Amino acid sequence: MEALVGRDLLSLADLSATELQGVLTLATQMKQGTVTPVSKKVLGLLFTKASTRTRVSFSVAMYQLGGQVIDLNPSVTQVGRGEPLEDTARVLDRYLDAIAIRTYEQQDLETFAHNAQMPVINALTDLAHPCQVLADLQTIQENFEQLSGLTLTYFGDGNNMAHSLLLGCALTGVNIQIAAPPDYQPLANVVQKARQIACDRSEITITTDAKAAAEGAHILYTDVWASMGQEDSAESRIPLFEPYQVNSELLGLADRDAIVLHCLPAHRGEEITHEVMEGSQSRIWDQAENRLHAQKALLACLLGAS
Questions:
Q1: What is the pLDDT of residues 251-270, one digit of tens each?
Q2: Which fold has domain 132-287?
Q3: Does residue 228 surpass a pLDDT of 80?
Q4: Per the annotation, does 185 bind a ligand?
Q5: Measured by CB atoms within 10 angstroms of the end CB, which terminus of the chain is less buried, N or C?
Q6: HEC string for the chain
Q7: Per-residue pLDDT tens for 34-63?
């Protein structure tokens, strides 16, 4: 994993299939108690969007590795007053060993990374959420002991989660189906990129038919129908997305041993029912826990832990 030291993670497409599997293997080892310290290293968190799991899991991961965390809240830094990202990146690069950024525009993340030498981690943009998918893949691997040949169906908005799942599944040999309304399907260029990565490794299907996509699937995955910044359209989306709700009927079409995942926070009764979320096939809480282990492994790799 030495090849990852000092690298950025702006998208899962930044990793090779071997590198991704290496991070997942280390995440499993860390969950079992393996320690790879990064003493005296400092991680900055620059979040312009709200966060619970990402903020806390990155902080705890860094502390458990022996490092420190600085919360760079835009409201109390010059970022909030309009300092150019290029300038902020050059300055913070002199202080920090790595930074995780949660923001709206992927371009802002890329601008920051272009002006900094330290590892820059995508902690969520409107385009991608790679760290979540690291935890998702770890959770799937825990349940099925392997990834290749499984089928994951994602229901709902073709958003940043759909984009990162497409790339993560393509890299690991998981067949992926995105079931979304016609006007809410994932970006064509991301689908094309995933197909290029997948080659013959996995199948990628984009459809509007939720029931057909659920049939025989090993993993049913969903996310909120309106992401952060889309609250004004939340009510109008409900009629369009109701056929994509993950409920007992949809789950009944899946493989007998299928599991259910949700990246959280959830709107129970909208994209997923309370019954399914709390049911025996839900692995949502394991998935949330694995944010800690997957990100700890990622940090260890990028920071060159001993």
A1: 999 999 999 999 999 999 99
A2: Rossmann fold (3.40.50)
A3: no
A4: no
A5: C
A6: CHHHCCCCECCHHHCCHHHHHHHHHHHHHHHCCCCCCCCCCEEEEEECCCCCHHHHHHHHHHHHCCCEEEECCHHHCHHHHCCCHHHHHHHHCCCCCEEEEECCCHHHHHHHHHCCCCCEEECCCCCCCHHHHHHHHHHHHHHHCCCCCCEEEEECCCCHHHHHHHHHHHHHCCEEEEECCHHHCCCHHHHHHHHHHHCCCCCEEEECCHHHHHCCCCEEEECCCCCCCCHHHHHHHHHHHHHHCECHHHHHHCCCCCEEEECCCCCECCCECHHHHCCCCECHHHHHHHHHHHHHHHHHHHHCCC
A7: 988 999 999 999 999 999 999 999 999 999
Q: Does 264 carry a binding-site annotation?
A: yes
Please give the structure tokens belonging to residue 39.
């003493």
* Residue 82 pLDDT: 85
Domains 2-128+291-303 and 132-287 share a fold: yes
> Does the annotation place 230 within a ligand binding site?
no
Q: What is d(CA 76, CA 80) in angstroms, rounded to the nearest whole number?
A: 7
User: pTM of the predicted model, to two decimals?
Assistant: 0.97
- Sequence spans of domains, the chain: 2-128+291-303, 132-287
Distances (CA, A) of 65 to 19, 43, 184: 20, 11, 40
If one counts every other C-beta atom within 10 angstroms of the C-beta of residue 129, the result is 27
What residues are annotated to the active site? 102, 129, 132, 223, 263, 291
Fold of 2-128+291-303: Rossmann fold (3.40.50)
Q: Is 268 annotated as a binding residue?
A: no
Query: What is the Cα–Cα distance from 206 to 224, expressed in whole angstroms?
Result: 19
239 close to 226: Cβ distance less than 8 angstroms: no
Is 169 assigned a ligand-binding role in the annotation? no
